[in-house]
Write a structure and sequence with these properties.
Layout: E1 2-5, E2 10-13, E3 15-16, H1 26-36, E4 46-53, E5 59-65, E6 71-76, H2 85-96, H3 101-112, H4 116-126, E7 138-144, H5 149-160, E8 164-174, E9 180-188, H6 194-208, E10 216-220, H7 229-235, E11 237-241, H8 244-247, E12 258-263, E13 267-274, E14 279-280, E15 313-323, E16 342-344, H9 348-358
Parallel strand pairs: 6-7, 7-8, 10-12
Antiparallel strand pairs: 1-2, 3-8, 4-5, 5-6, 8-9, 10-16, 11-15, 12-13, 13-15, 14-15
């Protein structure tokens, strides 16, 4: 590794060193670096716990979430991985695989010294997936200056069987002024081969597991200042907004998709087909060509923040096939409900129920 002197057009070699020789510790130094700058591992990660105590009494170094809502176990070693670090990390990953959403929120709240509600909101805003998929998968990142050849061999073999595990090397260097530099490098899987490997693994999983999604979407419709179910029925749309954490769910819907509309605490009130992509409410026209905001809406403030792309109410047009007023919502004990604006409807008992109520 070299430092560049641009003026003199010279390369100045940096001296490779060991962390131990510099007095740098796993827990008090390397762990803190990653805690403050997780991007050093090559992706956007949300640290949700440090020195997390597991039911076994063991403590894992760092626990994270990635953008796909998978839990990521980070196991750190200083200068050498040893010959069994992967087995240690597998045990930790096995343990956190049983974490329920409330446990994850609690761990994060304790780590951030925050309220549980605040921790949950931060996680929802970070991930790019349904909150219902939280911890449906687990990953492992092993971090060390050097990796034992047996560990590399084991990691490559485990990846063949679908375990998402990687090795990232953090190599320290000193310049002539004894300034410390860190070179991060993921060596398994090689970055150059990551896309190929990922596509291959996805294909293998697709061939091995048949999709079980019904094709129907669950959609939350609400009552409040910005939207009402009466407006939804009358003018043929659904909406969400006042923050992208709410409105972005509508982007998952495509023209032709079938949805079942649900009102919190009441039950299912509508079945329809999506007729447009998500748009800001100011841009939505009725089938007659009238701006939706010019219609006689019951909602008191549907146009609040309508010129703000981040905070605007967003709309998706719907052709309702069958609807019920809110006082006649359809439900049963154990019916599926979800806090997300949009998610896949896969609950078998609920599917049977809504098909009977809306499609018979």
């Amino acid at each position: 590794m070299y430092k560049v002197n641009i003026e003199d057009k010279k390369l100045i070699p940096l001296k490779p060193v060991n962390f131990a020789s510099l007095g740098i510790k796993e827990r008090f130094d390397i762990q803190e670096w990653i805690d403050k700058t997780p991007q050093i591992l090559g992706e956007d990660l949300l640290i949700i716990g440090k020195e997390v105590t597991l039911p076994s009494g063991k403590r894992l170094d760092l626990l994270c979430l990635d953008k796909s809502a998978s839990l990521v176990v980070i196991e750190l070693k200083r200068d050498d991985s040893g010959s069994a670090v992967e087995w240690q990390a597998i045990k930790y990953a096995s343990s956190v695989s049983n974490f329920l959403p409330d446990e994850i929120y609690r761990v994060f709240a304790e780590y951030k010294a925050a309220e549980l509600k605040e921790a949950k909101k931060s996680i929802e805003e970070f991930i790019d997936a349904d909150i219902e998929t939280l911890n449906s998968k687990q990953r492992i990142i092993l971090v060390s200056k050097e990796f034992n050849s047996e560990v590399i061999s084991a990691v490559l073999w485990l990846r063949e069987f679908g375990l998402d595990i990687q090795c990232t090397r953090l190599a320290p260097y000193l310049d002539v002024d004894d300034e410390l530099f860190i070179k991060p490098e993921t060596i398994v899987p090689l970055p150059e081969a990551r896309d190929y490997i990922t596509k291959k693994e996805v294909k293998q999983r697709f061939n091995a597991v048949k999709p079980d999604w019904s094709g129907y979407w669950f959609v939350n419709v609400g009552e409040g200042l910005h939207r009402t179910w009466e407006d939804n029925m009358k003018f043929g749309y659904i909406s969400a907004g006042q923050g992208q954490v709410y409105s972005r769910g509508l982007k998952r819907l495509s023209i032709g998709d079938k949805i079942f509309a649900y009102m919190k605490g009441l039950g299912y009130v509508g079945y329809g087909e999506i007729k447009s992509k998500s748009m800001m409410i100011r841009d939505c026209l009725t089938n007659e060509g009238t701006p939706l905001l010019d219609c006689d809406l019951k909602a008191k403030q549907p146009g609040n923040n309508s010129d703000d792309e981040q905070m605007s109410e967003y709309v998706v047009k719907v052709e309702w096939i069958k609807t019920f007023p809110s006082n006649d919502a359809k439900t049963f004990k154990g019916v599926f409900a979800n806090q997300n604006v949009v998610c896949k409807l896969q609950h078998e008992a609920t599917l049977e129920f809504v098909k009977k109520e809306f499609l018979a």
